[in-house]
Design brief:
The complex is a heterodimer of chains A (about 260) and B (about 300). Chain A is α/β, with parallel strands linked by helices. Helix content of chain A is about 40%, strand content about 25%. Chain A has helices at about 50-55, 75-80, 95-110, 110-125, 140-155, 170-190, 200-205, 240-255, and strands spanning about 5-15, 20-30, 35-40, 65-70, 80-85, 160-165, 190-195, 210-215, 220-225. In chain A, the strands form 2 sheets. A 6-stranded mixed beta sheet of chain A has the order 5-6-7-3-8-9, with helices on both faces. A 3-stranded antiparallel beta sheet of chain A has the order 2-1-4, covered by helices on one side. In chain A, helix 3 (about 95-110) packs parallel to helix 5. Chain B has 2 domains: about 1-65, no CATH class; about 95-290, MetI-like fold (Orthogonal Bundle). Chain B is about 80% helix and about 0% strand. Chain B has 14 helices and no strands. Chain B has helices at about 1-5, 10-40, 50-55, 65-75, 80-85, 95-125, 125-140, 145-155, 165-185, 190-200, 205-215, 215-240, 250-255, 260-290. The chains are: A alpha/beta (about 260), B mainly alpha (about 300). Chains A and B meet through strand 5 and helix 3 of A and helix 10 and helix 11 of B.
């Protein structure tokens, strides 16, 4: 077995708030292998976003360890080991789509010619070719979110961290983007950590589903999918799919009952 | 500019202006009438109302000059001077306005740069964040009328006189809105945007240049509009306590010494017009920047 891309051992994070400490994460241990598509699902407050933010070095754990490519999250961040997609597209409104995707590339100090080449490539990956000269407000919400995914891809990191990227979009747009994301993942063989509220989305996309429960945030169940890699949208009506979805739902319910 | 061209705004503005002029005329009659009654009484005569109204609008030193008297005085000291080829004569309001304007612009420039520099420091340095802001606010609680003569006198003592002391009084007033606005503007990026730059391992300078500075533009121009208007106030106030011989402030002062109310009012109106033009120019600059940032509607 190769070294895991992300490895967490007894990871804990307690926020000190005014009234009482909040245990956002408690003793989370998890290994994620190269090429995995791992979804984190659970109710609000279960720590799924916090886990992602710890991996991205946006929060500091109060206990346990986590490594990214064998490095600390801070080192991994400095090596630009991952691309991060937030729930909101967070595009800079004064920059065109091209120039928005160029932001991380400018930070890295890439030459203009390579920036241009990368921008074209990632716009093509998210099927936004021809929209590069538009400003964000000229694009629909779904297109904006695709642009923000393109921006994360432009980094060319092997690890993609996605925090409810489709949470604010409607069902139909979401379906399309799920299909596109799956195709993208297959094409690029990236490792994806994907936070979601939606059971169908988690089951449809993932190779593994991490079911989490709140207060304190911890891993309740890890489900290995039995679905094939090739997944048309109507796989969601297959008995196989429904069985996994059922197990996720059971896990979520049990997690709640623990309280 | 846009003030008059925007559709449907012209009539309401005209109505308000008409109302103000009407009230002004009525007030002029009312305020200037006692003088006329006195004069009639001394002459042992009675005065008819129509004569009274006529007289109250032609006084040489009225308590409140009528609008057309002020308009005539402004024309006499601006347009008419230009026609005679002497726009920068010492009796010309254009000359006095230019004196005040130069101090205003220099003070505005220094104030804006100082304000932006302080805001950058406050946003990026914890010690400055904790220590500078209270002093900035304290500085504005000191009446400018008290501090203006001291600035002039102290700078004079070290050999600096003329434009700079007046400009520094403008600076004293105008840096404040810029600091306050820019601190807010530079802190206006959303959490997610700042997190994003953190995940890029962007340097502070990169985050400033690509995120904080562009985000702060609307705040900057809003504060600049306030700053340019009070820069003018500062320059005028700077001319008052020093016995300056030139500038709109000097005109106001001279007018009040000799009871020349018409002169006071015309200087007042020129100052107001100057402020309006300055604010409009800042607004034009704002629109140009917005267009360059792709946000022109």
């Amino acid at each position: 077995m190769t070294n895991p891309v992300v490895s967490a051992q007894n990871l804990s994070l307690t926020f000190q708030t005014a009234d009482a400490p909040v245990h956002a994460l408690k003793d989370v241990s998890l290994d994620i292998e190269q090429g995995d598509f791992v979804s984190f699902i659970g109710p609000s407050g279960c720590g799924k976003t916090t886990f992602l933010r710890v991996v991205a070095d946006l929060e500091q754990p109060t206990g346990g360890t986590v490594t990214v490519n064998g490095l600390t999250p801070a080192q991994a961040r400095q090596q630009r080991a991952y691309g991060y997609v937030f729930q909101a597209a967070s595009l800079l409104p004064w920059r065109t789509i091209n120039d928005n995707i160029a932001v991380p590339l400018e930070v890295m100090g890439l030459p203009k010619s390579e920036q241009k080449e990368r921008i074209e490539r990632v716009l093509d990956l998210v099927e936004l070719s021809g929209f590069g000269a538009k400003y964000p407000w000229q694009l629909s919400g779904g297109m904006q979110q695709r642009a923000s995914i393109a921006r994360a891809l432009a980094f060319d990191a092997d690890l993609l961290l996605m925090d409810e990227p489709f949470g604010a979009l409607d069902e139909i747009v979401r379906d399309t983007l799920n299909e596109q994301l799956l195709a993208l993942w297959e094409q690029t063989n990236k490792t994806v950590l994907f936070v979601t509220h939606s059971i169908p989305e988690a089951v449809f996309l993932s190779t593994r589903i991490v079911v989490m429960s709140p207060r304190p945030g911890r891993v309740h169940d890890v489900i290995e999918t039995t679905l094939p890699k090739e997944r048309p949208l109507d796989i969601r009506e297959s008995p196989e799919f429904l069985k996994i979805a059922h197990r996720v739902r059971e896990g979520l319910r049990a997690g709640h009952a623990d309280e | 500019m846009t003030l008059f061209s925007e559709e449907g705004k012209f009539l309401p503005i005209l109505a308000v202006v008409t109302a103000i002029v009407a009230i002004w005329y009525a007030a002029a009659v009312w305020l200037n009438a006692p003088q006329e009654y006195d004069r009639a009484q001394r002459a042992g005569a009675t005065i008819a109302f129509s004569q009274l109204v006529q007289n109250t609008m032609t006084q040489e030193r009225p308590v409140l000059p009528a609008p057309h008297q002020v308009a005539a005085e402004i024309w006499k000291t601006t347009g008419a001077m230009v026609q005679r080829g002497r726009p920068f004569s010492k009796r010309s309001l254009i000359y006095h306005a230019w004196i005040t304007l130069s101090a205003t612009l220099l003070g505005f420039l220094i104030g804006s740069v100082l304000g932006i520099a302080l805001a950058v420091g406050i946003v990026h340095n914890l010690a400055m964040d904790k220590s500078v802001m209270p002093w900035v606010i304290t500085s504005q609680t000191i009446p400018i009328l008290a501090i203006a003569p001291m600035i002039i006198v102290v700078l004079n003592a070290v050999g600096i006189s003329g434009l700079l002391p007046k400009a520094l009084i403008s600076t004293y007033l105008s840096f404040f809105p810029v600091v306050v606005g820019m601190v807010k503007g530079l802190r206006s990026p959303e959490r997610a945007q700042l997190d994003l730059f953190h995940t890029y391992s962007a340097s502070r300078w990169q985050t400033f240049r690509m995120l904080r500075w562009p985000s702060s533009m609307p705040y900057l121009f809003t504060s600049l509009k306030v700053a340019v208007a009070i820069s003018l106030v500062g320059a005028i106030v700077g001319e008052l306590p020093t016995g300056a011989v030139a500038g709109l402030g000097a005109r106001l002062l001279a007018g009040s010494y000799y009871g020349q109310t018409i002169q006071i009012w015309s200087a007042l109106f020129v100052a107001a017009a100057l402020a309006a033009v300055l604010v409009m120019l800042v607004d034009v600059g704002h629109k140009m920047v917005l267009r360059r940032m792709g946000q022109a509607a």
